[in-house]
Amino acid sequence: MRLWKLSAAVLALFVVACGGETVTVDQQEAGSLQLPLVSTDSDGKVYRLMGATFNITGTQTVTVTDTAADTVTTPLLTGSYTIELAPGWTMERVDAPGTPVPATLLSPNPLPFFVKKGEITQVRFQFKLPGEGTADVGIEVDSGGWFAGSVRFEILDGSTPNPYAELVGKTVPFLISFKSFTSSRESWGSTLVHTGPVTVQFGGAPSAQLARVAAAFKDSELFLSLKVAGSGGSMVEFTNAQLWSPREGISFDVYPGSAPFVGVVDRDGFPVFRPFSAEAPARLYEPYAGYGVGGMSTVNASP
Question: In this model, does residue 27 exceed pLDDT 50?
Answer without folding.
Answer: yes
